[in-house]
Amino acid sequence: MTKEFKRPDGRGIEELRPISAKVGIIPNADGSAMYQSGNTIAIAAVYGPKKMHPQHQQNPSTGQLRCNYNMLSFSVDERIRPGRNKRAMEISEVTKWALEPVLMLEEFPNQVVDVFIYITQADAGTRCAGINAASMALAHAGIPMKNLITSISVGKLDKQLVVDLTKEEEDFHTGEGPTDIPVSMTPDGKITHLQLDGKIEVKQLQEVLDMAKKACQEVYKVQEKALKEFIGGED
Ligand code: ADP
User: Fold this and answer.
1) Per residue in 152-186, pLDDT tens?
2) Distance from residue 12's CA to the centre of ligand 1 (Å)
3) 28 HSE (CA, 13 A, CB side)
4) Cα(180)–Cα(196) distance, rounded to whole angstroms?
5) How far apart are the CA of 232 and the centre of ligand 1, in A?
6) To test the ligand 1 pocket, which listed residue (126, 132, 165, 169) has its Cβ within 8 A of the most ligand atoms?
7) Which residues does 26 contact at the CB level (< 8 Å), separation at least 6?
8) pLDDT at 235 over 70
9) Would you state the pLDDT for residue 83?
10) Of 12, 230, 17, the residue nearest 123 (C-alpha)
11) How far is the CA of 124 from the centre of ligand 1 (A)?
């Protein structure tokens, strides 16, 4: 693949947007975190484990995770109609699938852990940012976890693979157009979530996964640092 490929914001093909992360941003929540990648900002708040209500949804053999993703009305230039929509419902569900495999919820029968994710600013990659924030917030809440989850989107612009797409890149319409592949994984590369919006050849998918793994290691370092900073800052 060509190294001279020019991205609209001048980044290298494997260069992530500037990342920042902070843990413990919502005092009333049991766990909370913020994750920012360029102009995409996600905040996550965790409440629980607590008794599951409605009661008929309780499961005596395990605790359950509920995720609620929402993009705030003024997170994009054109105001979004507030409230649930199909996209938010889909992202809430994939967020749950991405995070569940690392949570040891069997320790909390009949209980639920609620995760609320708000996108305060959106410039693509919001499901990944939300998953990164939620993973930190769950750790901050002290929910037993086998590992953190880290998420990044790899994209194909025409034939060129790039990491961490912006909205401008997602709207790329030259040649084969854009393909967006959000991937979530543990730091040792166990994939818990992969979506594919567009077209890609099977043989290029391995390259996508290699790029995602490398990028996720960078994201993981930022998540780990934010959690350590929080522990260091506690009285
Ligand atoms: P992701 O944010 O995970 O990449 P999508 O591919 O669905 O998820 O959305 C890409 C981007 O499109 C969002 O991050 C946001 O910048 C923009 N977007 C999504 N929904 C809307 C909307 N209803 N109005 C305006 N922009 C939107």
Assistant:
1) 999 999 899 999 999 999 998 888 888 999 999 99
2) 23
3) 0
4) 6
5) 35
6) 126
7) 32, 43, 45
8) no
9) 80
10) 17
11) 6
Backbone conformation region of residue 140, classed left if phi is above 0, alpha if psi is from -120 to 50, else beta: alpha
Ligand 1 centre distance from Cα of residue 142 (Å): 31
Instruction: For residue range 100-128, list pLDDT tens digits in order.
Output: 999 999 999 999 999 999 999 999 999 99
pLDDT value of residue 2: 53
Residues with CB under 6 A from ligand 1: 76, 78, 80, 87, 122-127, 167, 170, 180
Measured over the CA atoms of residue 21, residue 24, residue 26 and residue 31, the dihedral's sign is positive
59-75 residue pLDDT tens? 999 999 999 999 999 99
The first and second tokens of residue 27, run together, are 């005092």
